[in-house]
DNA sequence: GTCTATATGGAGATAGAC
DNA sequence: GTCTATCTCCATATAGAC
């Protein structure tokens, strides 16, 4: 059966495949490795996913669907465009901190998707981009930018990049890194950095 | 012989491997495919590279070495930090437009490097990051940023991202995209967008 | 330096017992 | 739903003729 969605084993396959794909890449991970991690034999995987490709597609569409849904319930739609932009940047960074494996796969494994699956994933990815672009367009005149489509891609690339280097336990806390990225994102479209409450330390400074 | 550096065949292997690795990924490309693209049999590859891994290492260290060397002859070291930052952003974008395959491999195939090769590549990558960080630190007080190491990574991620979507022949020319990215990079660290000569069109505007 | 031929291993996927 | 066993194919890499 392809994708028996409810079962515990299917969830375990998703989890272990996600971990392995993120660590070493889809093409480099074998079905036997996934099965070993789950604790079954390779043949057993095929009770849940018809092909290895189906696992990848399931992970990517599932992740991007969750990302979109999570933003749509976070977006302060009745607030100012400036506030919505800040909320978007904060949401994007936090989501990426919380689900680094899913995020990594979503942008590293696009080329391993078969054409039909790639098209489906692209729709979701473009929808997410569209959410940010809509904020830029809703705030026309409030931002300083040359092109909303390019600014969208540039900003998402910048924010997503945090996953490639940040590891907990380093010099900076997650909250500190988040603040820095939000301020860079805001400044990149002409907004001032966020100001902090007077009793806090470590606000924006000139170096 | 591992890596007969001067031969025409070795150069052709590098070129075809780079194209194939960029398009479909190191793990998904076979030595037979590379050989076919070069016009020899698979066994003949081993006269030039001892292993498939050696081809990848050669491509990545070669690219990063070129990137560093090219920047070091471009850097206007005696100019202001602001001018050097703008020069860096422009250089980075142009280099990435000109060598998209090499760039793509350099940041997508890190996890397919064996530990020793990964370490060597990381040294080069960190050196390049260090060039930008040094500009931020040389211009202390002129930029508005919270942390030079984080700003370096965020800015490079933003600039590099252009390779993931830009295709010639679209709505915007390379020069237009370059200008937009440079302005976003400048604003992200507190600098004003570049002003254009009065007779030119399409300068920074508010949308 | 390239060829043909091959060694050796592992890949994705399937069949059928339980 | 998982198992064992296996099919078929292709991977990296090597040996030795030319």
Give a verbal description of the structure:
The structure is a homodimer of 207-residue chains. Chain A is built from nine helices and no strands. In chain A, helix 5 packs antiparallel against helix 7. Chain A is mostly helical and 207 residues long. Chain A starts with 7 loop residues before the first helix and ends in a 19-residue tail after the last helix. The longest helix of chain A is centred in the middle third of the chain and has 24 residues. Chain A folds into two domains: 50 residues, Homeodomain-like (Arc Repressor Mutant, subunit A), CATH 1.10.10; 156 residues, Orthogonal Bundle (Tetracycline Repressor, domain 2). Chain A binds a DNA duplex (18 and 18 nucleotides) through helix 3. Chains A, B: It holds the Pfam family TetR_N. Chains A, B: It comes from Aureimonas fodinaquatilis. Chains A, B: Keywords: DNA-binding, Transcription, Transcription regulation. Chains A, B: This is TetR/AcrR family transcriptional regulator. Chains A, B: GO terms for molecular function: DNA-binding transcription factor activity; transcription cis-regulatory region binding.
């Amino acid at each position: 059966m392809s994708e028996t969605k409810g079962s515990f084993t299917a969830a375990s396959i998703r989890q272990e495949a996600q971990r392995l794909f993120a660590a070493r890449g889809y093409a480099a991970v074998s079905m036997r490795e996934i099965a070993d991690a789950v604790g079954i034999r390779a043949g057993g995987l095929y009770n849940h996913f018809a092909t290895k490709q189906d696992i990848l597609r399931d992970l990517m569409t599932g992740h991007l669907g969750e990302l979109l849904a999570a933003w749509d319930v976070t977006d302060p739609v009745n607030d100012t465009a400036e506030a919505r932009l800040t909320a978007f940047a904060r949401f994007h960074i936090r989501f990426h901190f919380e689900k680094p494996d899913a995020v990594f796969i979503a942008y590293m494994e696009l080329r391993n998707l078969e054409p039909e699956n790639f098209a489906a994933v692209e729709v979701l990815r473009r929808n997410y981009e569209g959410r940010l672009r809509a904020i830029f367009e809703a705030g026309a005149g409030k931002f300083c930018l040359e092109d909303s489509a390019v600014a969208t891609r540039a900003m998402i690339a910048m924010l997503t990049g945090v996953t490639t280097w940040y590891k907990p336990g380093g010099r900076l806390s997650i909250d500190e890194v988040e603040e820095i990225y939000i301020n860079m994102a805001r400044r990149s479209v002409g907004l001032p950095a966020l100001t902090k409450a007077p009793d806090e330390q470590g606000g924006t400074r000139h170096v």
